[in-house]
Design a protein that fits this description.
heterodimer; A: mainly beta; 4-stranded antiparallel sheet; 11 strands; B: mainly beta; 5-stranded antiparallel sheet
């Protein structure tokens, strides 16, 4: 059993008239237990040189193991760039076809955009890992864009 | 413009043979700029007592936010290991936040219902949930006719 701690701090002195300071730490546990997650993809670093939509984290069996669906898996992603104008769109769904159309992700070939990671932006989300729930990226530029990601799973 | 910084640290000394230490800090900017996001929903804290799905940040009917940028924070404050919330977007499930878990992600809401964020508690016995959006949207929360 491993102990993985993830801490977030959100701070602003001027977003509102009173300062904002949110600090929260979670220990990544297996679903419904007090036992820590034990498996990881490792920190993956991947570069893209086209604006093509690409599967970043695919569900099912992978070279690092098979994340169990509908558990307490966590996914970290970072755009390692420094640009304030170039970004990667992060999507969820299935990228196989219909790349130009955004639909509700109920079919086998649809997807939904979560949001954009500009240079230096990061995200940490739970990872469901069921079918049609791949995590995809679509860079905004054909200039080299490098993304790092790491999956913690059971 | 406001200056809002989001910092994450992911650390483990025993997940792998070598110590894991990820530390990132980044300011929250409007899309394509170095101007800080200047709106927020504030930190909402709800005691949810039903397993019915709800939208923490409804998108206003008939509008879009395609050019804007936003960040979302959601935390499950339960202390009961088995209690979780399912977080989704549109009809897709992002994943489950169990007791004590939090998430932070970018959010680009478009038309209503297309990529609304959804939360579904696992139990009706009551649990506290916190959520906040930091954004420059013109058309979300609180005046919505969403379902």
């Amino acid at each position: 059993m491993a102990t993985i701690n993830a801490t977030i701090a959100i701070n602003s002195g001027d977003l509102t008239s009173s300062p904002i300071s949110i600090n929260n730490t979670m220990t990544m546990m297996k679903a419904g237990t007090c036992h820590g997650l034990e498996n990881t993809s490792g920190l993956v670093r991947r570069s893209f040189t086209a604006t093509t939509l690409v599967d970043l984290v695919t569900v099912g069996a992978q070279m690092y193991g098979t994340p169990t669906a509908s558990k307490a898996n966590k996914l970290y992603i970072k755009n390692t760039g420094t640009s304030t104008t170039d970004y990667v769109d992060i999507l969820i769904g299935d990228s196989e076809t219909d790349s130009g159309e955004e639909l509700l992700a109920t079919g086998g070939n649809s997807k939904i955009t979560l949001g954009r990671l500009y240079g230096g932006d990061w995200m940490l989300i739970p990872f469901e890992g069921t079918s049609n729930n791949d995590i995809m990226v679509a860079p905004s530029t054909a200039e080299t864009t490098t993304v790092e990601w790491m999956l913690f799973f059971e | 413009m406001a200056t809002t910084t989001a910092t994450v640290g992911i650390n483990s000394s025993d997940l792998t043979d070598d110590t894991l230490s990820i530390n990132v800090s980044k300011q929250c900017y409007k899309a394509g700029t170095t101007l800080g996001l200047d709106q927020t929903t504030g930190l909402n804290r709800l005691y949810v007592t039903a397993t019915q799905q709800f939208d923490p940040f409804p998108v206003v009917k008939g509008t879009t936010n395609a050019a804007e940028n936003g960040k979302v924070y959601i935390a499950n404050l339960s202390t009961t290991d088995t209690e979780y919330i399912i977080v989704g977007i549109g009809d897709a499930v992002i994943g489950r936040l169990y007791a004590g878990d939090w998430m932070w992600m970018p959010w680009s809401p478009k038309a209503q219902h297309v990529n609304d964020i959804e939360i579904t508690p696992s139990v009706a016995t009551g649990m506290h949930v916190e959520f906040m959006a930091i954004h420059n949207f013109a058309n979300i929360y609180p005046d919505s006719a969403d379902s």
